[in-house]
Amino acid sequence: MLEKKNLPGVLFEQAMKRVYPYGNLASQVLGVVNVDNDGLTGLEKQYNKLLTGTNGSLVRERARDGSYIAGGAYKKVAAVDGVDIVTTLDVNIQRAAEDALAEAVEKTKAKNGSALVTDPTTGEILAACSYPTYDQTDLENAKTEDMNLRLVTDAYEPGSVFKTLVAGAGFDLGVVRSSTSFEVPASIKVGDDTVTDADKRDYGMTMDVREMMRRSSNVGFVLVGRKIGADDFAAYVDKWGIGHSSGVDFPGESWASSRSVTSMTAPRWDR
Hints:
By secondary structure, the chain is of the alpha+beta class. The chain contains 9 helices and 8 strands. It has helices at 27-30, 42-46, 48-52, 91-108, 150-153, 162-172, 209-215, 218-228, 230-239; strands at residues 57-60, 74-77, 113-118, 125-131, 181-184, 187-190, 193-196, 205-208. The strands form 4 sheets. Strands 1-2 form a two-stranded antiparallel sheet. A hairpin with a 6-residue loop joins β3 (113-118) and β4 (125-131). The chain is elongated, with a radius of gyration of 28 Å. 22% of the residues are buried.
């Protein structure tokens, strides 16, 4: 190595360059930096101050014409590295999730999709991705929306999983039990929307809450919601953090208000 020979007038400076040993794997989680190495997206942005460290400096003696003097005096202050960030992502699980998600989005001709894999015993995130994605080494052709981890940055209607919360509210507040029966019509008016069930039946049915859950009955759960009452239901979902930031250590989190809760709307529970 020439550096070890201490040649007079020859100085060596270290230059840093980002490399991505796993290609564009987890690119939306990791994020990117600008030309000044400031984080723009993802964890690069979230932890920019910790990752940046402190710049070093080099002062060298120049001649009258401005050129550096070989063997001249110089003062070097070493840079201080930033801290390392260790994620809970599992490379193998992340790869499997990204491959499966890409295949599903392409097969169903969906506009986009997201996937999240967690360890239920610890809450650690083992994989997180959205599709389409992008290549960190080709930002010129990257679309801004593809750089987002959509399951954090985008707001979505919860769909029929929200019925679990409606049922839970009814149980916890003592308003209904799983055996409580309702006369469930084929459709019901909620505000300006007409809510129906996925089976498109044109007749009413007697259903208990258990049967409503089995059928994923939109109409049935509107009735349960009305029995709970708007104010009590709004307070209940607020307790579960609906309409609040999750506090996840990731930039750009989007969260929707629970504005429709008080009117018990459920026009898109089956989506």
